[in-house]
Amino acid sequence: MTNLLEPADGPGGPERSAIPVVELRNITKIYPADGFRANHLVSLDLRRGEILCLAGENGAGKSTLMSILYGLIPPTSGQISVRGKAVTIHSPLQANRLGIGMVHQHFMLFPECTVAQNVVMGREPLKWGIFYDIATANLRVEELIRGHHFSVRPQTPVRELTVGEMQQVEILRMLYRNADILILDEPTAVLTDQEIDSLFRTLRTLRDSGKSLILITHKLNEIKGISDRVAVMRAGELMAIRNTGDVDENEIARLMVGREVDLRVDRNRRKPAGTRPLISFEDVTVKSRNQKRPRLMGLSFTVHQGEILGFAGVGGNGLGVLEAVLGGFVPISSGRIRYHGRDIGGLHTEQLRRLGLAYVPADRLAVGSALNAAVWENIIINRRREFFHRGFLDSAAVEEFTGRLFGPYGIAGNPNLPMGALSGGNIQKVILAREIDQYRDYIVFSEPARGLDIAASRYVYEQMAELRDRGAAVILISSNPDEILVNADRILIFYRGAIVAEFDGIKDHIENSGIAAIKEEMGACMLGLKSRKGETREALHG
Prior knowledge:
Elements: E1 20-31, E2 36-47, E3 51-56, H1 62-69, E4 77-82, E5 85-87, H2 92-97, E6 100-103, H3 115-120, E7 126-127, E8 131-132, H4 134-147, H5 163-176, E9 181-185, H6 193-208, E10 212-216, H7 220-226, E11 229-234, E12 237-243, H8 249-257, E13 277-286, E14 296-304, E15 307-312, H9 319-326, E16 334-339, E17 342-343, H10 349-355, E18 357-360, H11 375-379, E19 388-389, E20 392-393, H12 395-409, H13 424-438, E21 442-446, H14 454-469, E22 473-478, H15 481-487, E23 490-495, E24 498-504, H16 506-513, H17 515-526, H18 537-540
Parallel strand pairs: 3-10, 3-11, 6-9, 9-10, 15-22, 15-23, 18-21, 21-22
Antiparallel strand pairs: 1-2, 1-4, 4-5, 7-8, 11-12, 13-14, 13-16, 16-17, 19-20, 23-24
Helix pairs in contact: 5-6, 16-17
């Protein structure tokens, strides 16, 4: 595997031009509705043949700045130059014409269409100027794939691809449109280590061919491992631009947060693990109509009092279905789910919430929040009765309660504004604060730190450990191996809807074998290359 920590500018690295292909000068963005200043006099440049990482906490202004460059929102003031010429970018289509492409964190692909169809969509080759030319489309995409050493095939339906392969398709779409300036938003958020290695090889190849790339990322080791320079933002302002080789992870974190940050997470327990089972799955299967293979297949496991049980896997292999079952959104086809010995397999979400389910969903927008309701309404949604007296809302009590939750999580925003007015990271913080505050004895976290900055992620992990030590059964679902390894006491690996491996005593594993070895073995199990349960590779892929 590629060592992500080796310098991006090692011996034999590419010669980068000092001439900028993009210049942003004094970019300011103020939203007139509430006067919020998202960017303030931000100036930076991107050079030909370099990878520039854009780092910062949630709400630092990174996404706003890149949205301005890509034509999604207009700046209040400032100037953009592309290849030395001042431009005004009104739309993504205009950005594409200037050679600027953006790969969003949430892929914009059509799963029923093939790789080639997704890549050429909107710019399809035509036969006789009328009909979609399938053969030409496949040929052009195949040439693009070979030229950049990608692993996908033009005629494969996107629904059959891994998450890493879908990301390749998104990059191919931009390259097909002749983009030589690429913006990638949190590109490794849902990838395994093996897929990250593959992506980084691709990005280095693109850089070496003269492409210029901007990566938005929170992951410090990736900033050190892939970038040539790093630009750090805080509170809408550019704090520094550094050659990556001249700064370490602690310095980058300090620039992001504004103070010294302890990057270590204490794995030590303050109380011994309990033995009392709280949640048990007994041969649980979930089937769908017209699907030959079950979405979940014969799951059996127990979550005990005082432990964090982690579930790891690549997207599309059952983690989302497991989350939906635990949240009461998807019924099981067979088997039993027990809570304190009671069968709860047939209960829906509201009934589970009344029993004590606390739940942080992966999809914070569609499942975890009401975007048109005020932030304070989202916070008290599960305990409204506590704040109403004789039919009237106790506004002072709501304000005090909301303020008490805002502080520890560093939530930035007006609690009276609609939830949708907050940044994605701040929406996640609101949900985390609400659910952790209301938990009883078990709580489900799904991708809890996705999109969170360093300080917020660390606080969430500390809260997980605190809940565990208070006797909670904590279920952690994550496609991020680092997140699982940092937090879980025991790990179950998903592949194609089944549990294919179990890792117990994680702390001892790390101390004995090292974190790199266990991550590599976990990644192989997540990709279906290996099993710890005796299955052959053929059985896993059958």
